[in-house]
Amino acid sequence: MPAGTTAWPGVRKRMILRDDVPEHRYTPEQTIAELETSEIGRITLERIEESKAVVEIIDEVQSSTDRGAQSGKEIQIFSANNKKLLHEAQSVIHEMTHYWYHIGECQHAEAICYSMELMRSRKKMTITQEEWDMIVNIVKDAYPNLSWEGGNSETYKQFDFIRNT
Ligand SMILES: [Zn+2]
Prior knowledge:
6 helices; alpha/beta; 165 residues; binds zinc ion; 4 strands; 4-stranded mixed beta sheet
């Protein structure tokens, strides 16, 4: 689908600027345009388009450093914690990964979501074993209160994006 005002009608309807502030850090149009620049971004847009996910863009300064949150179909993106438009788009990719695969509340889920963010940086649908190992270490440090895997470990067998190239 070509970029422009007619593209992604579902995304445009359900990506909402929540706060009534004089100036928004990033508009939905800017975030959509950023997502269109990578394959993982375009897949994310398709998933928002096809699903009932609602993406709320929140400009209010947060007490935590969280960049996003997801609960059921509701996704919140905390723009004040995203220093660049790239990070804003990566937060949408991250939270949509939680939503789309119904994964969360464990370190393995976070590692999958951060891998999808890295796919945006790499502009590739794969990451290397070295990058995966690095993400796993970061996640284990950042989420010491979570176990490696919660729920059904079969869920994680569908992910096959580690390539040494
Ligand atoms: Zn997460």
